[in-house]
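Handout, page 2. Input:
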Amino acid sequence: MLAAGHAADQIDVALMCHATDYQLSSAQYSVSEQDWITTICCDVSFPQVRRFRIDAVKGGPSYHHECRLCLLNCPMQPPTSAVPDFYYALFAFYEPALTIIGFIGTLCDPKSAHNAQAPWPAGSPPPPILPKASIVTVIQLAHVCALMGLLGIFILTAVRKHLASHPALQEKIVRSLLVPLLIGDVSHLYLTLWALGDDRWDVTQWTPMLWATVVTGVTLMIPRVMWHLGIWRYVDARDRAPHPASSQPGSQSEKS
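Output:
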């Protein structure tokens, strides 16, 4: 939990907070003859944490310091990625899996995929043989959906891997991907219901494929809205660490 050096005038402190808090290392604190010390400067990588209290008790002729470190006002660790695991699992695994499985199913049986898109009128069964134009259209549509899923895998994986230390850039790139996808979620649901005509609210007649289209669309649209609201992810305007110069006493801003 706490490691302390043996020097008479300094203590090197390495504190491990709870898993949800900060991990501090290489922080040095001056030790005086007083029992209680409140630090003024804190050379750690998380400038949000500023104030500590050290109970330093000298014991024995070797001046070994027995220390307890109490962290005051330690906030929860803010998100450090614009694509945390929750969103990465949804948009780089769940969504691509849906689109790729749908594409494979359409390739295997384009006729069933076509006929299950919407309920058929009573007394008017689906045609026994689909025109080639319909088969080509259905397969092309499924291919485009699978391609969008593959784009999510590669873009989000590259962003997490190569921009892990630049969450602000992550946010800009991921927003460029998720904005058109969110527009697509809303327009897809709207156009699907619009195309159903007067039968759009007769849900008892909906086919399993139609239900899957609506439900999966909602399960992707809601997390995308959450991402844009900044829930459970790094938001540069909110989580950006203050510039060191602005937090130093006697900085230019304070002098002015």
